[in-house]
Design a protein that fits this description.
390 residues; alpha/beta; Rossmann fold; 2 domains; five-stranded parallel β-sheet; 11 helices
Length: 390
Amino acid sequence: MPNIELIEKMLPVAPLKIAAMESCSELGQKVNDYIVSFRQNTINEVTESPIYVNYRSNNYLVDCACPRFGSGEAKGILKETIRGTDLFIMTDVCNYSLTYTVNGHLNHMSPDDHYQDLKRIISAATGKAHRINVIMPFLYESRQHKRSKRESLDCALALQELISMGVSSILTFDAHDPRVQNAIPLYGFDSFNPPYQFMKALFRAVPDFKADKEHLMIVSPDEGAMHRAVYFSNVLGVDMGMFYKRRDYSTIVNGKNPIVAHEFLGDDVTGKDVIIVDDMIASGESMLDVAKQLKERHAARVFVCTTFGLFTEGFDKFDEYHAKGYIDKVITTNLTYLPPVVKEKPYFVTADMSKFLALIVDSLNHDLTIGAVLNPTDKIHALLKKYNQI
């Protein structure tokens, strides 16, 4: 594992603490368990030194909460000291499963609610922690990253607000457009991508999967995901294609121009497995339409790889398309909330990101380079070699 030798030789910036908010508690627990394991295995002979007194622990999680009043208002509480620590606050703004009561009415928490709770915990920690870092796998308002005509710039404003509250760095995954970091050019902003975890999950879930030019093709479902498809195809050495969305710009439905058709640009997909790669599945309609068109073009199997599975319209259409043979597997990460029903879906595969995230946190706590983490090319090549694909 990268950085382990360096970590053994260096002290952390400050004692590590992780505030995994309720929306991110399961992922936070897994990250904590991995870091506990890392540190038990790396520090042996020097643990008697007093400078390592806060280094090795059975738990780095901070007990925190955001209780609400009957009116729906809330406050952030840290139930233990975080003075002088390197604090990492984890939140999942897409966890709609959590609820609260407003004047007797039950509300599901929205991204806005989660973002406000994040600010409450930051406010409770400001002035005490040595450094505050925010881990927000799905970047809040990341789809509203640019202005068209008279529109708000929500993502840029949120980033600037967090920095003004004392946050040193913001860690996210597969930002819809990483250029939004230009809103905070002098502060830390890292967007990580999970292509290695996608390939690892695919090899485990599909034993006869072959990642070569004769058997595989990478497809981008739209022009926005092109850079992901280009990276995948270059690393694997396979062909790629793309769809572009023909929209009706005279109409607005649910805040966007409806898609009239998906047009395909690329080589023949006949008899080849196809990986469709994108950052998220929201309703999934465009992704499913692309999968259907690929099967109509005689593709062998269609695998959907997406960082965030939001499934805002449920799973009925995915069940239908799987039954009809349009999609074979849907691979998504556990970085955002997934309802328990996904475990029952025969086509669903989870790419576990907890170990990857634990390595990022442990490296940053030591102020070590994360260049190898940002560029997973070598790890993908090693994976291909392991499965005799090179």
